[in-house]
């Protein structure tokens, strides 16, 4: 008989007495549960390595520990291959509407800057490099080999990625989160937390900023405010164009991530609709970049 997720959670030796287990919504690369034990609450994440998405759970745990040490993320309570137990934070995940408000942007930008500045100081062991242009090329090979319905788009995607890589340099490198979806920010009423370090690794900060803006559909004015807050200065035309190139690359990667998930993921999620939405956003951003 195949063990259920609940069986796997119950089998951990860290618990004292009976457990209450409830699934948490969200999570499209893992399954998440709220566990109550001995008067305390924990988040349990079930998920193995996902080579097609360059996800290493060992790297995720190391990044999670470093982010906690930097004061950004909840504590890691326990880890073994396939299962991660985190301290529970009584907080609400943000929505895109939340993030787009000027007040929230002013709170989020220092958190992102702290990620880029502080997490690497606490990271231990081999660290990943998340290079979006390599990811795009690897995704294209996976989609070709897997007979994806999106194969006709791949030559164009690869050509665009090459153009964007040229346009986005020179590159500053920092330790980045690389998946700044709204739900990965938690607000406990006093402060913000940044969670889910599946894709964390060294990258250019412009990728995180572009991902934040594209994932949450910032207006041009909101993008300008974000960049000015992050760099604490006016935005030059050169920086703006490099940023726009990385934003396009972020949207291309998210689109191809979903295309790969269509043929490789067994999680119950509407990847086809997610692909269509991100493809729309990418095509719009690419046209704006070309016309700029």
TrEMBL record:
GO terms for biological process: phosphatidylethanolamine biosynthetic process. Residues 21-240 form the Aminoglycoside phosphotransferase domain. The keyword Kinase applies. This is Thiamine kinase. It comes from Rhizobium miluonense. GO terms for molecular function: ethanolamine kinase activity. PANTHER family: CHOLINE/ETHANOALAMINE KINASE, ETHANOLAMINE KINASE. Keywords: Kinase, Transferase. The keyword Transferase applies. It holds the Pfam family APH.
